[in-house]
NitT/TauT family transport system permease protein
Amino acid sequence: MTTFQTTIRPEYERTLEPFTAVPLSRGLPWYRQLWQQGWLRKAAILLALALFWEIAARFQDNDLLLPTFLSTARAFGEAVASGELPGKAAVSLSVLLQGYAAGIVLAFVLTTLAVSTRLGRDLLETLTAMFNPLPAIALLPLALLWFGLGSKSLIFVLVHSVLWPLALNTYAGFRGVPETLRMAGRNYGLRGLRYVVLILVPAALPAILSGLKIGWAFAWRTLIAAELVFGASSGKGGLGWYIFQNRNELYTDRVYAGLATVILIGLAVEGLVFTTLERLTVRRWGQQH
């Protein structure tokens, strides 16, 4: 009779390296690791656009129609060094922030009413259907009649450009909040404004941030267009007035420098404000990838 003996292997514990301690780019060449940086890829795109601009301008060979990138950069540097462009940008941004803030407050009030009462929902749907398709710049003649030549006219059209897209996005985000979260808020006794602020706003934050970005873009281009139409506000001209004035004097390089300033401010707001806000909120909370 054969007897089988089972050998019991000794137990041991293996300590695993934490997953977060292992770099994802291990084993990649240095240039591949460098290319993983988003800022570098965006900088490469901007550099390629500048190179294309320079080549196209030299091929055109007409500074009145299309100045070179280098001449535009020179005009931009001179305007910044003299303080002219920063001053114009400060005038435009001060008006923009007032209209943007007012539009955010009104959009929050309308959407709060819409999710609280049936009449508020009907009011929001009716007003957005009426005024959202209406271009903000089309209201500028009425604003000039009502408020005169001043910052109040600009703020009025800015509120119109911000209010409706932000209200629509916020309301859509509120309607997309899961019913489980809604029931949890009601079980804790949340009603009215506390229910909106503590339950609906955090859950709908991705849609709200999208509305804020859309509203910012609409407000920024509306402001520049309005300044181009009627120029200075209260004796002070913004970036639109700077572009319009230099176009009349045929300083095309300064016109492009003003347009570049508008673009750079837009890139700065997108990269520094909204991207940071998304990283600290919705991405950190796992609501956005």
Q: What stands out?
A: The longest helix spans residues 84-116. DSSP finds twelve helices and no strands in the chain. The chain has one domain: 67-280.
